[in-house]
Amino acid sequence: MPTPTSRTLPGILLPLAAVWLGMAPSTLDYRVQDLINQALAPDASEQIVIVAIDEKSLAQLGRWPWPRELVAEAIIKLGHARAVGLNLLLAEHSEHPESDQALARAIAQNGKVYLPAFPEPDGNTLRPTLPLPMLAHAARGVGISDFPAQSNGEIRLTYLASGPGDTRLPSFAALVAGRPVAATTGTGQGDWGRSQPRLLPYLASDTAFTTLSMAELLSSSHPDPRLQDKTVLIGVTAAGSGDEHFTAIQRSQPKTSGVFINAALAQGLQQNRLASPLPPAWRAGLLLGLALGWQLLASRRKSQHPIRQAALFVGAMLLGDTLLYQLLHIELGTATLGLLILLAATSNFFLLQSHFKKLAFTDKLTGLANRHHFDERIVMALQHSQLEQQALALLILDVDHFKRYNDHYGHAAGDDILRQIAQVIASMVRNPQDTVARIGGEEFALLLPNTSQKQAEAMANELRFRLLGRQIPHHSSPLGRVSCSIGIYAGTPEPDATVRSIFEQADQALYQAKRNGRDQACVADGLLATRV
After folding, report:
1. Distance between CA 87 and CA 437 in Å, rounded?
2. CB of 439 within 8 A of CB of 372?
3. Are the C-beta atoms of 512 and 529 separated by less than 8 Å?
4. What is the model's pTM?
5. CB neighbour burial string for 171-186, b if at least 16 within 10 angstroms, e if fewer
């Protein structure tokens, strides 16, 4: 049986939503992606060490900023490291020029030191805050540390190349990791260009980079074996330093320092694990394909359990999304689309169930309640009337000489007469508690809770007059027009009254109306029936 599409959500809604979602991942996409990929994240690399300017160092060496000779001494002690990333902003001269010169000499002596530049707002654009020229000249390289925050303040993305105008500085983390990238022209805010976007990586929550306090490094008189041939990043980790950012790198550490972010990026680059976000057009196309694929599957493979079918499809989507991220390092994000598919499947299921239930309770020819629905309603109405000691009325209507009408005009015309009479009876309904039903071939019932005998008689006469007003020809009837006979039960049901006894009384009144010549209403009065 074809699905009644008028009873389901419009099929165009899901593809349109998929295209809209393709413009950018939603918060739900990010959260589900975080939960899955954090669980699959690798441990922090043993090849990366953080030299932290932490609370211990500040307590022993004084408030930051320190004399640059201290930083120079630390760099000299790191001569056996593979690479050193000095994750500090060194854009201004110190009060003592010899301090800058000492730091420049130490950087040059080490020969493996990389310095960062940082994008800073400048009106409607950005400009790079670069290290002092003498320090930049002494360093092995200068890279940009560009982590634009989202509207909620969270950092998820970096760029392997960015800078002003046609200048594209390579990423600071890429230089430190020994994975320099070819800078390409990109587009960005104002004159600031960005290219090669990468997502921040994930790390297992129960792991951490080897971390050495700056105070511990400076106090050591011998080379620390933990630093031998390691990638070392120096940065501030003390609370309240201002270099703290919200990221999803680790579930257990939602707020991290800039040096930790660069360490995680360096690991991701060394292990070739940094994922790339899909361009909006590609993402929209893939999500659209998934949405259409689901609709095709749902239409071709009808299931008795459509919600379960949708859940399996969404599970397959999330699995594919995870494999895409873990193996190909591409971010798609399907959680929101999956939720919409589940909601659509659930909504369609209940809409269809409601529709089929209505069909089961509805007479197909007239659109009125059928006998099954009527039987349910009269049981409830009787119980309520007995409990509340309220009046109850039941009108049973039979079309006079209907067989003759069918024989004379044909069954199609007979069906049309039944539909017209159904309209007349339905027009008598006063409130949702009243029930109009077709209970037989040409027999109808009007159930009227909380209705007295006088009101029921008035409604029966009104119904006959409305039918009379239509003046429907019936040449096989003595009256020359379509008419009806009505039997009425009205009263307050006794505690021992049953649906059968009430119905029999109304039915007896109906047959009395027929015996009296039809085109009239009779009311049941015990075992008698009186013409209204």
Report:
1. 82
2. no
3. yes
4. 0.70
5. bbbbbbbebebebeeb
